[in-house]
Amino acid sequence: MNTIRLSLLATGLTFAATGLAHAHATFETGSAPAETTVNATLQVPHGCDGKATTEVRVQLPEGFVFAKPQPKPGWELEIIKGDYRKTYDDHGTKVSSGPLEIRWKGGNLPDEHYDTFVVRGKLAGFDKETVLAFPTTQLCGADGKVVWDQVAAEGEDAHSLEHPAPTITVTMAAGDEHSGHGGHHQSAPKTVRLGDLEISGGAVKAMLPGAKVGGGGFVVRNGGSADDRLLAVESPAAGRVELHEMTMENDVMKMRKLEDGIAVPAGGTVELKSGGLHLMFMEVKKPFAEGDAVPVTLTFEKAGEVDYVLPVGTAAGNAHSGHSHQ
Hints:
Blueprint: E1 3-7, E2 13-16, E3 24-27, E4 31-33, E5 37-44, E6 53-59, E7 64-69, E8 76-90, E9 93-109, E10 115-123, E11 130-133, E12 136-140, E13 144-148, E14 167-171, E15 192-194, E16 197-206, E17 214-222, E18 228-234, E19 238-249, E20 252-257, E21 262-264, E22 269-271, E23 277-284, E24 293-300, E25 304-315, E26 324-325
Parallel strand pairs: 4-14, 16-25, 20-26
Antiparallel strand pairs: 1-8, 2-3, 5-10, 6-9, 6-12, 7-10, 8-9, 11-14, 12-13, 15-16, 16-17, 17-22, 17-23, 18-21, 18-24, 19-20, 19-23, 24-25
Organism: Rhizobium meliloti (strain 1021)
Domain YncI copper-binding: 24-170
Pfam family, one: DUF1775
């Protein structure tokens, strides 16, 4: 295995406090759809019996691939690489090896403080709902250690474990055990949190055969004290995704592209839907069919990136016919 030393920030695993001295290691977001990229944010809530944490090690399970840690000031980063058990497709390139363990070293996190450590990776190669465990070790100086590596057996309650490993439940985007194409019923999207932002609801409209442009949206709530802005949306299902606004001018409905994104004010809620602010999927590769699901990656100015999955609802018909583009 190769070792690469860098500097890192944090990814998406979370140590959530459930009691000061015995808080368990958990992910901030406990589930995510298969074939999406996730930020795993790990919060470390305490040290080892009062001793400061100096190193955090996270083992990456099979299926969490193409991992990229983010630099973290004051900590040295070690990326342990090795072979995957399977081969994965990375935008047309076959990849059979990559990061297997991330280590944040040489820092100093006092017991009375907490900090976060983040890893970004893709959940790939799953055809059914799966629970992924990320065994995590916390080192405190030369002799202090806390290991979070216990995995619940089938039917066992993870809360009964003394040192449970952080987990992510990989879900199927279309609500069945396979890909979700071909008219299966699509359940409502799950709520996703990104810092102070909460993304929920929404849908994409089904498209007519041969159509290349689709529309959709979702709801963003900003529970923080600082304004944010949705800058961009990407989807593997379309050549590009644009942010649009539809307004009435001189009794004519006009639609314009929002080059500067969409503001999400502090304490406010913004809804993207037909007739107002919305998403436009351009150069759609295959017309969206009712019951399918469309994965998107949302980029916010301050909160960063997050993956979300939108169900495909009823047919759009000629919803945009007769509208004028500005």
